[in-house]
Design goal:
This protein is of the alpha+beta class and 749 residues long. Helices cover 18% and strands 43% of the residues. The longest helix is centred in the first third of the chain and has 18 residues, at 2-19. The radius of gyration is 35 Å and the shape is globular.
Length: 749
């Protein structure tokens, strides 16, 4: 504030020098930067010396911030004003900084050009710079301020910085008898030093983030039935040289409760006959979030006209009874919503995820739903919403605390798969552009077998509601693949426009229009002509995708169900006319909590049929290798008897069972997990009209089941998704193409 006042005062000088008239009875001594006429103009236009007026003038001069001392000496007919000007910082520079940019250090130091210079504050400014480096894991940074006097009260200040080495961290737990240290660390944002945690600065120990981690650990325990768990504040120690941080928590788990019974205590006088869905909680471990969702269900049943308070009754032997107390609602209103921690994300991006605002009737279920939505945005490492009493009994203050994560990425790297070979990738993406919630991405990938070019933009909130709009354009280049899958070079250009929004809490619906144009060249002679046309193939289609998900974690689920269904209708111009339908479902269950084993069962299928014309072979289903692992891309399905060309089918179906488990040592440091699986599936039903008109002879055109068992490694890392599978086919057809080992993955750096 002082710096702004000082600059304002100095900027006035040019004007005041002209505007002020000479005052021979007042002289100014000691000024260099501020013109004498400006100082004289502050004094009252009187011949006589009046002490009260002079005191007021001195205060006005001090208020400019341009002076550290002002003295007025009355010498009869002459008044002498002696001033001491405030020294000013002209230039601020940083030397030796590589890890933090000048702009970051400017913000951290709080010292800018034009500010008053106070040598006593240089130590404080240096400490701020040291703290900024400590936040990046460099705790032995040394900062030396250097001052250069340019005369006239002007100074240049520079800081010589020795950034030092990055410290390591070690996270420990005491009292965690029910869960491993690796599992508890997976809940935390702060990690022990490892290959990835160090690369992405996830191993930086910070007191504020450790408090959020403490809350995460406590919430995790409570979700597993440990209602009385106590997690201590983080104990943080550093070695004398700042090279290593040791931080940990002491945990008192307490008993683990399972729910014995669920009942209703209804004092409203209005009957409630929907207890049965709440009975699903019985026999399961106590989870306050699930109990709270039960309360939300009751509130919705009564249209918010009742207050619902879950009450717990702890019984011996780890048993708990739940009673929902129903009372007539006491109207409480939202006084205000406070948001903290969003240094980048705009306030309105967070506020629009709430279905209530200041002045609205307070509804706890809407607060919990807002918290869920904010977590799903992907903009924050953590979201915590709390409520406190407002200025009156019927007022409540909602406080939203967020910890932001980086949402922008410039990437140069590569990818590899046994299907498409190596590929170099360069990309630019931002999922929270300028803090507005908008997203864009652009990428170019070029490999020995394929080329990918993508550009997309998403507006997340249109027409004043939670409806997102995405526009995407792309190109795919494919080289000739021998073996009948793609015996030609192909270029596919396309665009897709999608509108997507929520229907219910767990259900989403997206509608889209897509346009693709594929051109083929260098077609193998044995399939050219009737099987594969050299003409461009244009598909113009409308479609929709419906999905339901109640997964506990979208990225790494351990419990829940996800179901998808979509249809596409082609024929709005173009060359293709068909209706395509696809559906999938996968359910997850935690098989062993102690050993962190998660099992899943999945089913999926699809059907496509031509409308008024034969179905082109390229519009048939030609499944990827993951339908039945152990087979190549397009390794199963009907083929032409003469050429071996993969005709594809109008139908496909598949099922799989899989168990994912942590790999000791690797899971702790890198998050690599192992899997065992069994797959089965088939592709069948080539369009008979297309077969007849092309002269093809379809082999293996039946619903014969292919199956396999295997083991794999999965690494869902910040660098990309890596998969490696070893699969042994158990049943197959003679014309199938097997692939015992497959690997796919991408990396960006």
């Amino acid at each position: 504030m002082k710096s702004k006042t000082l600059l304002a005062a100095v900027s006035i000088v040019a004007i005041s020098a002209v505007a002020a008239h000479a005052r021979p009875s007042i002289s100014v001594v000691g000024n260099g930067k501020v013109d004498s006429d400006y100082i004289v103009s502050v004094f009252p236009d009187k011949n006589a010396y009046v002490e009260a007026d002079t005191d007021r003038a001195v205060k006005d001069i001090f208020a400019t911030g341009a002076f550290t001392d002002v003295k007025v000496d009355n010498r009869g007919s002459k008044v002498v004003v002696t001033v001491v000007e405030t020294p000013v910082v002209v230039n601020v520079a940083f030397n030796g900084n590589k890890r933090l940019k000048d702009e970051q250090l400017d913000a951290a130091s709080g010292l800018n050009s034009g500010m008053p210079f106070d040598p006593a504050r240089l130590s404080e400014v240096s400490d701020r710079i040291v703290k900024a480096y400590a936040a990046t894991g460099r705790r032995d940074t040394k900062v030396t301020p250097i001052v250069v006097n340019r005369d006239g009260g002007f100074y240049d200040v520079s800081f010589d910085i020795d950034e030092g080495d990055r410290s390591t961290s070690e996270i420990w737990f005491e009292g965690n008898e029910s869960f491993s240290a690796a599992l508890l660390q997976s809940v935390m944002a702060t990690k022990s030093t490892g290959l990835l945690s160090k690369l992405f600065s996830r191993d930086v120990v910070d007191a504020g983030k450790m408090e959020l981690d403490r809350q995460r650990i406590a919430d995790f325990y409570r979700s597993k039935g440990f209602a009385d768990v106590v997690v201590s504040e983080a104990e943080i120690d550093f070695d004398p040289g700042g090279k290593k941080a040791m931080a940990g928590f002491r945990i008192k788990e307490g008993p683990r409760y399972s729910i014995s019974s669920v009942s209703i205590d209804n004092t409203t006088g209005v009957p409630f006959d929907r207890l049965q869905p709440l009975k699903d909680l019985e026999g399961k471990y106590y989870d306050p979030a699930k109990v709270a969702r039960g309360a939300d269900q009751i509130r919705r049943t009564f249209n918010g006209l009742v207050d619902v308070t879950p009450k717990t009754d702890r019984l011996p032997n780890g048993v708990m009874d739940i009673s929902y107390a129903l009372d007539k609602a006491q109207k409480v209103y939202v006084e205000r919503i406070d948001i903290v921690g969003n240094d980048f994300t705009k306030d309105y991006v967070i506020r629009r995820e709430f279905d209530l605002s200041e002045g609205d009737l307070f509804d706890p279920s809407l607060v919990r739903e807002a918290e869920r939505r904010l977590n799903r945005l992907g903009f924050f490492d953590s979201v915590r919403i709390t409520t406190t009493k407002g200025s009156a009994e019927d007022r409540v203050v909602v406080r939203v605390e967020v910890v932001e994560r980086k949402t922008g990425e410039f990437s140069i790297g590569g990818a590899y798969s046994t299907a498409d070979g190596p590929m170099a990738i360069i990309g630019l993406s931002q999922s929270n552009f300028m803090g507005t919630g908008r997203a864009f991405s652009a990428s170019v990938g070029q490999g020995t077998e394929t080329g990918n070019y993508d550009l997309s933009f998403t507006e997340p909130y249109i027409f004043g509601n939670r409806l997102s709009a995405t526009a995407q354009v792309f190109r795919r280049d494919y080289d000739n693949r021998k073996g009948g899958f793609r015996p030609y070079d192909e270029t596919v250009d396309g665009a897709k426009f999608t509108l997507k929004g929520p229907i219910t809490t767990n259900t989403d619906l997206g509608v889209y229009y897509s346009f693709t144009s594929s051109s083929k060249s260098d077609i193998d002679a044995d399939v050219a002509g009737s099987l594969v046309s050299g003409k461009d193939h244009v598909v113009s289609a409308l479609g929709y995708d419906w999905s339901y998900s109640d997964l506990d974690d979208e990225k790494n689920p351990s419990n829940g169900l996800k179901v998808t269904f979509g249809q596409q209708v082609a024929g709005l111009g173009g060359d293709a006319q068909f209706v395509k339908s696809e559906a999938s479902a996968r359910v997850y269950r935690e098989l062993s909590e102690r050993h962190e084993i998660v099992g899943s069962i999945a089913v999926r299928g699809g059907q496509v049929a031509g409308v008024g014309q034969d179905l082109d072979f390229s519009d048939h289903f030609r499944t990827a290798g993951e339908l039945v692992r152990g087979f190549e891309n397009g390794g199963i399905g009907p083929r032409d008897a003469t050429t071996g060309y993969l005709l594809g089918g109008q139908y496909y179906a598949g099922a799989s069972a899989e168990a994912i488990y942590p790999i000791p040592v690797l899971s702790d440091g890198l998050g690599i997990k192992g899997s065992i699986f069994a797959d089965l599936g088939t592709v069948w039903g080539t369009d008979s009209g297309a077969v007849s008109s092309s002269g093809a002879k379809a082999l293996y055109d039946n619903a014969s089941i292919r199956s396999s068992v295997g083991t794999g490694v999965v690494w869902d890392s910040p660098l990309g998704l890596f998969k490696a599978n070893f699969a042994l086919p158990l049943s197959k057809e003679d014309g199938d193409r097997t692939q015992v080992f497959s690997i796919s993955g991408g990396t960006r750096f």
